[in-house]
Design goal:
Layout: H1 3-13, E1 31-38, E2 41-48, H2 61-74, E3 82-87, H3 93-106, E4 113-118, H4 128-131, H5 133-139, E5 146-149, H6 159-180, H7 192-206, H8 217-226, H9 231-241
Parallel strand pairs: 3-4, 4-5
Antiparallel strand pairs: 1-2
């Protein structure tokens, strides 16, 4: 969970949201659900840490698969849009991995995605970063529906001075969400094709040669079991597909 998401969810819901330390990133794929009201409509905000490498080591393919099964089971209803977050600056390997995993693999590039670029409070205007041709070209392959630059900086010596910029950021982000989101969420269908696609994508992202190439369910389950995927995860996959 980024500082921006923590701050933004707190602003929308009025709830205290706990931070996630760097040591937890990569070790958990937890997701939390919040409700926020905007212009009389109730929106459900689902926040996840994503797949990152943390201070305590890297996620194995088996761990990541178990986390993603839980994520898929908890969000089968699907999403109207996806919000990616990054600080102003260079794209990271973690950003690339999470975009590949969420937009391309889980959502099959069929759900609109919006990018929020933070730490832009010193720019005038705040969207100056994305107006730069080099930055624009770097993000072009990701096909974001929109890119919003802004700030979530709160507190400290300049907290009060930055309040107008936070309000501008909030307004621009909601405007983008309302403009680009689907009228109805596009569901996640937990079928054999999705699970195989997720597993093979994890193999690509983690650099391991364990891809599964057939569509035979029993062979897929036995293959995961041979790699040490635990029985609980295998039972969850079996329950979703039958």
């Amino acid at each position: 969970m980024t500082d921006f998401i923590i701050s933004w969810i707190r602003d929308q819901t009025g709830k205290k949201v706990a931070n996630v330390s760097d040591s937890a990133k990569g070790c958990t794929f937890e997701f939390n659900t919040y409700q926020a009201e905007h212009q009389g409509e109730i929106y459900e905000l689902i926040d996840t840490v994503g797949l990152n490498e943390g201070a305590n080591g890297t996620v194995t393919a088996k761990q990541a698969m178990k986390m993603l099964i839980k994520f898929i089971r908890g969000n089968k209803r699907g999403f109207n849009c996806v919000l990616f977050v990054m600080p102003k600056g260079r794209l990271t390997d973690s950003f690339e991995k999470n975009h590949m995993l969420f937009s391309k693999t889980l959502l099959n590039n069929q759900t609109p995605s919006i990018l929020f670029v933070g730490h832009c409070e010193a720019d005038e205007p705040m969207n100056s970063w994305i107006l730069n041709n080099e930055n624009k070209a770097a993000l072009q392959p990701y096909h974001f529906s929109d890119i919003v630059c802004g700030t979530a900086q709160d507190g400290g010596r300049f907290g009060q001075l930055l309040q107008p910029l936070r309000e501008e950021t909030n307004e621009n982000l909601w405007k983008s969400i309302c403009q680009h989101m689907l009228d109805n969420p596009r569901p996640l269908e937990p079928n054999m094709h999705l699970f195989k696609r997720v597993w093979n994508s994890l193999c690509d992202l983690l650099g391991i040669n364990w891809k599964f190439l057939t569509d035979q369910f029993s062979s897929f389950i036995q293959y995961l079991k041979s790699l040490g995927v635990d029985d609980e995860t295998l039972q969850q996959i079996n329950a979703e597909l039958h």
